[in-house]
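Quick question, first post here. What does this chain look like in 3D?
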Amino acid sequence: MGYDRTIRVHAGFTRTVAAARQALAAQRFGVLAEIDMAATLKAKLGRDMEDYLILGACNPQLAEQALDADRSIGLLLPCNVVIRTEESQTVVQALDPTIMVTLTGLDTMTPVSNEASRRLDSMLAQLAKELNG
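> Answer (accepted):
Ran it through. C-alpha coordinates below.
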Protein backbone atom coordinates (compact mmCIF):
# COMPACT_ATOMS: atom_id res chain seq x y z
CA MET A 1 0.00 0.00 0.00
CA GLY A 2 1.35 3.41 -0.93
CA TYR A 3 1.44 6.17 1.63
CA ASP A 4 2.25 9.18 -0.51
CA ARG A 5 0.88 11.44 -3.19
CA THR A 6 3.69 12.45 -5.52
CA ILE A 7 4.33 14.75 -8.45
CA ARG A 8 7.49 15.51 -10.37
CA VAL A 9 8.11 18.96 -11.77
CA HIS A 10 10.65 20.45 -14.14
CA ALA A 11 11.31 23.53 -12.01
CA GLY A 12 14.29 24.00 -9.75
CA PHE A 13 14.24 23.25 -6.06
CA THR A 14 14.06 26.85 -4.81
CA ARG A 15 11.26 27.80 -7.18
CA THR A 16 9.34 24.64 -6.27
CA VAL A 17 9.64 25.35 -2.53
CA ALA A 18 8.28 28.88 -3.00
CA ALA A 19 5.44 27.64 -5.21
CA ALA A 20 4.62 24.84 -2.73
CA ARG A 21 4.34 27.34 0.13
CA GLN A 22 1.93 29.44 -1.94
CA ALA A 23 -0.10 26.41 -3.03
CA LEU A 24 -0.35 25.18 0.57
CA ALA A 25 -1.49 28.62 1.72
CA ALA A 26 -4.14 28.66 -1.01
CA GLN A 27 -5.52 25.45 0.53
CA ARG A 28 -5.41 27.02 4.02
CA PHE A 29 -2.37 25.10 5.22
CA GLY A 30 0.22 26.93 7.24
CA VAL A 31 3.78 25.69 7.55
CA LEU A 32 4.45 25.01 11.23
CA ALA A 33 7.82 23.35 10.83
CA GLU A 34 10.59 23.17 8.29
CA ILE A 35 13.39 20.62 8.32
CA ASP A 36 16.27 21.01 5.88
CA MET A 37 17.51 17.43 5.83
CA ALA A 38 20.48 18.23 3.57
CA ALA A 39 21.74 20.92 5.95
CA THR A 40 21.03 18.79 9.02
CA LEU A 41 22.89 15.72 7.74
CA LYS A 42 25.78 17.91 6.59
CA ALA A 43 26.05 19.63 9.99
CA LYS A 44 25.57 16.52 12.14
CA LEU A 45 27.18 13.79 10.06
CA GLY A 46 29.29 15.58 7.47
CA ARG A 47 27.18 13.88 4.81
CA ASP A 48 26.29 15.53 1.52
CA MET A 49 22.94 14.77 -0.03
CA GLU A 50 20.54 16.28 -2.56
CA ASP A 51 18.23 19.15 -1.62
CA TYR A 52 15.61 17.67 0.72
CA LEU A 53 13.13 19.78 2.67
CA ILE A 54 10.29 18.63 4.90
CA LEU A 55 7.46 21.10 5.45
CA GLY A 56 5.12 20.37 8.34
CA ALA A 57 1.84 21.76 7.00
CA CYS A 58 -1.29 22.21 9.09
CA ASN A 59 -4.85 23.22 8.39
CA PRO A 60 -6.12 24.18 11.87
CA GLN A 61 -9.76 23.26 11.20
CA LEU A 62 -8.85 19.81 9.92
CA ALA A 63 -6.36 19.27 12.74
CA GLU A 64 -9.06 20.16 15.28
CA GLN A 65 -11.50 17.69 13.74
CA ALA A 66 -8.87 14.95 13.67
CA LEU A 67 -7.88 15.56 17.29
CA ASP A 68 -11.53 15.55 18.37
CA ALA A 69 -11.89 12.11 16.76
CA ASP A 70 -8.66 10.69 18.21
CA ARG A 71 -6.25 12.51 20.49
CA SER A 72 -3.42 10.17 19.43
CA ILE A 73 -3.72 11.36 15.82
CA GLY A 74 -1.17 14.02 16.72
CA LEU A 75 1.40 11.34 15.92
CA LEU A 76 0.45 11.85 12.26
CA LEU A 77 0.21 15.65 12.40
CA PRO A 78 1.14 17.94 10.81
CA CYS A 79 0.77 16.81 7.20
CA ASN A 80 4.32 16.37 5.97
CA VAL A 81 5.19 17.63 2.51
CA VAL A 82 8.60 16.67 1.16
CA ILE A 83 10.34 18.60 -1.61
CA ARG A 84 13.50 17.01 -2.94
CA THR A 85 15.65 16.85 -6.02
CA GLU A 86 15.90 13.66 -8.00
CA GLU A 87 18.17 13.74 -11.02
CA SER A 88 16.93 16.59 -13.26
CA GLN A 89 13.52 16.94 -11.58
CA THR A 90 12.11 18.17 -8.33
CA VAL A 91 9.80 15.79 -6.47
CA VAL A 92 6.95 16.99 -4.26
CA GLN A 93 5.36 14.41 -1.98
CA ALA A 94 2.59 14.62 0.59
CA LEU A 95 1.62 11.97 3.08
CA ASP A 96 -1.64 10.38 1.94
CA PRO A 97 -4.26 11.46 4.52
CA THR A 98 -6.16 8.18 4.11
CA ILE A 99 -3.42 6.70 6.29
CA MET A 100 -5.22 8.35 9.23
CA VAL A 101 -8.27 6.16 8.62
CA THR A 102 -6.24 3.05 7.86
CA LEU A 103 -4.07 3.29 10.96
CA THR A 104 -6.78 4.34 13.42
CA GLY A 105 -9.61 2.24 12.04
CA LEU A 106 -11.95 5.09 13.01
CA ASP A 107 -14.78 5.90 10.60
CA THR A 108 -15.03 9.34 12.25
CA MET A 109 -11.65 10.14 10.68
CA THR A 110 -12.98 9.61 7.13
CA PRO A 111 -14.42 13.12 6.57
CA VAL A 112 -11.20 14.72 7.80
CA SER A 113 -9.13 12.40 5.62
CA ASN A 114 -11.31 13.09 2.58
CA GLU A 115 -11.08 16.86 2.99
CA ALA A 116 -7.33 16.80 3.64
CA SER A 117 -6.90 14.59 0.57
CA ARG A 118 -8.94 16.98 -1.56
CA ARG A 119 -6.90 19.97 -0.41
CA LEU A 120 -3.52 18.27 -0.83
CA ASP A 121 -4.51 16.92 -4.25
CA SER A 122 -5.51 20.46 -5.26
CA MET A 123 -2.18 21.78 -4.01
CA LEU A 124 -0.26 19.16 -5.98
CA ALA A 125 -2.35 19.78 -9.12
CA GLN A 126 -1.74 23.53 -8.85
CA LEU A 127 2.01 22.92 -8.57
CA ALA A 128 2.06 20.53 -11.51
CA LYS A 129 0.15 23.00 -13.66
CA GLU A 130 2.26 25.98 -12.63
CA LEU A 131 5.66 24.32 -12.78
CA ASN A 132 5.19 21.90 -15.67
CA GLY A 133 2.88 24.14 -17.73
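Helices lie at 13-26, 37-45, 60-69, 98-104, 110-132.
Residues 42 and 48 are 6 Å apart (CA to CA).
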